[in-house]
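lol ok so funny story. i was supposed to be doing the assay writeup but got distracted and ended up predicting the structure for this chain instead. priorities right. anyway since i did it might as well share w the group, maybe its usefull for someone
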Amino acid sequence: MECMAVKRNERAFDHARDLIAVGKYVIDDRDAWSEHQPSARQENDYIERHGIAEYARWHLGIDDEVDENRKGRYKFPYGDFQDVHRCGLLAAESRAGQRKYYDIELAVAHLHGMLEALRMSAVTPDRP
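and the output, tada:
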């Protein structure tokens, strides 16, 4: 029986929301995450430069059953250590839904909604 204790990472949710608010996001295609997702080497370099706590802020889920100093503790990445990626949010939303992590799925849906609102406001010019 597999029962992971994955819960929403509030610090990561706040970080993503703040990044979106200041324009640090990429509106990309749903299937672009495989290309935009950081590689294991990029993850390791980021941890070496910034520490595991900063790495954790880029993941919307935390697995309580894994040691806090291990990369495997942090689930549902949403960006490339610079920007929030729409494709990363969509991938996280889909996986969270499949695994029934509803709190994470709702958080991702909120962030995705923020991006969609920004995308629509950029497409639809203001009318007097």
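DSSP finds six helices and five strands in the chain. The chain has one domain: 6-122.
back to the writeup now i swear
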